[in-house]
């Protein structure tokens, strides 16, 4: 029996751009890396073949690959015990478990999930005995998770029953080798192999055509920017307004009972990606007004792939994240900044961050680990806040293995005690701030067309705590429960890639049984992981940006606010001689935490031609379990081992 991996995508061609790129590259051929030189040589000597029916969106097919050219074919071996990952996590994260808080060491994680000797042996036997590959051409990676075979393109085609071509990235002109039309593995081998590279995976997942209604392609990834940014003309006058008009640190402290004096000083981080940077002068401007003890303080830089927060770039997201977290936590808590560069358009920032935390991830021949240099050499911190979206949550055989592998890695890292927190999105039930929905023909279209709901990653990964956005209702005080945001729709819904975990079954089923609108079965996946998990204020927050004060927000603000709450909880547990909380989702949904949230019951998250989901008593796909009460959360977590 054979198992076939296919890629179903659309095509565009621009031979002129490729020719120009090749001309410029050939002038400096001698100084190129061997991997790129190989691809260029394949391109030069290959002959043009008939265009296969579907080429990956964002790529152009140039030539049929030269069958005599050598390629390093990599087989990512199936990890052991992945079916037990959730059970392992529940053993240390379920409040009822006697092992609560006993996080694993990095070595324990690595050994537990290392591919089995059976897996290594089965693939090795297939390559040497069935396929006749010389044993000297086969190498096993030090972590035991990759088998690399140096073969010709022709040998790879015979081995995989595939056809290889040379492609060019329409966005940055880079070239690569692949077989977009799919490949075949024997059934007895396919269960031992997660991914084969290079094959159908082309840079970051872009399998569905993505366009706006104006025809302008939507961005590959970005911050949550559904909330407007409004310059403040008169800060003194605005300060006299209520928290429904301007949200300050004092508003947040009042809303979430955030009376916090740090004791442990332990490390927590915020992650920023690409050309998103901050200015120390903006931090000082903000701190002079709201937190004078923090003037002159900046976060500790953890540069990933050369990330530099001092270069030119967008100030909105980092200013928001850093000012809120440092302002709430105060000078006694250490805040670090993962500044993740994006050296090429094909690199997925998710992969860069994961590889920096776990060196074994660098060897995964998945989407974009090729060329990553920071491998397990960066400090692992207790809480990591991510205010960005990277990919739509679509069920597609060409990308699902990749996003599932990324989510698995988040799960493995949570075993070591890290809490990952991410914004749920500013598009309501649509994907991202461009409001993308999935049409019946499989096209992802921006502008809120009538179509199926689309979640977003990494928020929909069950090992991440997703945070939705709320606001103080007009004329209301901080003593009253907030409502879901109306200036933008807070993201939430049900994953198309990840099944609903057991720890949220009761809460989510209650919503599905009693409050969900009567949508057709094709509109959203009722059995998927439901998100967000919690919520926090997302509009209108006062921050300093570009030398002045502005009103800003989004779930981009909600995530670092909730991350600050968990950092404060960790501080209390560490001071009491206990472990950080790590994976918090099972605890948050348990009866032990039933009174730790302010239940948000007003609001909806419209999108895709619908009103989305309504907020409701208990958990809902707009505000999750509700907004936090720090003192109650802290007491509940301190009561655990």
Could you explain how this protein is built, in words?
- The structure is a single chain.
- The protein is α/β, with parallel strands linked by helices and 641 residues long.
- It has two domains: 2-79 and 114-202, no CATH class; 222-638, Peptidase S8/S53 domain (Rossmann fold).
- Helix content is 27%, strand content 20%.
- It contains 17 helices and 31 strands.
- Strands 13, 14, 15, 16, 19, 23, 24 and 27 form an eight-stranded mixed beta sheet that branches. Strands 4-5-3-9 form a four-stranded antiparallel beta sheet.
- Helix 10 (280-290) packs across helix 11 and helix 11 (316-329) packs parallel to helix 15.
- The radius of gyration is 25 Å and the shape is globular.
- The termini are far apart.
- Mean pLDDT is 86; it is low at 6-53 and 205-222.
Short description:
One of its GO terms (molecular function) is metal ion binding. This protein is an alpha/beta fold and 641 residues long.
From the N-terminal CA to the C-terminal CA, the straight-line distance is 50 Å
Round the Cα radius of gyration to an integer and report it: 25 Å
Q: Kindly report the average pLDDT value.
A: 86
Largest sheet: 8 strands, mixed
GO cellular component, one term: extracellular region
Cofactor: Ca(2+)
Main location: secreted
Pfam family, one: Pro-kuma_activ
Give the helices and strands, then pairings:
Blueprint: E1 2-5, H1 15-26, H2 34-45, E2 59-64, E3 70-77, H3 85-93, H4 106-113, H5 117-130, E4 138-140, E5 146-152, H6 153-160, E6 165-169, E7 175-178, E8 183-186, H7 187-190, E9 193-197, E10 210-211, E11 222-223, E12 230-231, H8 235-239, H9 249-255, E13 267-273, H10 280-290, E14 300-304, H11 316-329, E15 334-340, H12 349-357, E16 383-386, E17 388-389, E18 391-393, H13 400-414, E19 419-423, E20 437-438, E21 444-445, E22 455-457, E23 465-471, E24 483-484, E25 493-499, H14 505-514, E26 528-531, E27 534-537, E28 541-545, E29 548-552, H15 555-575, H16 585-588, E30 597-598, E31 627-628, H17 630-638
Parallel strand pairs: 10-21, 13-15, 13-16, 14-15, 16-19, 19-23, 23-27
Antiparallel strand pairs: 1-8, 2-6, 3-5, 3-9, 4-5, 6-7, 11-17, 12-29, 18-22, 20-21, 23-24, 25-26, 28-29, 30-31
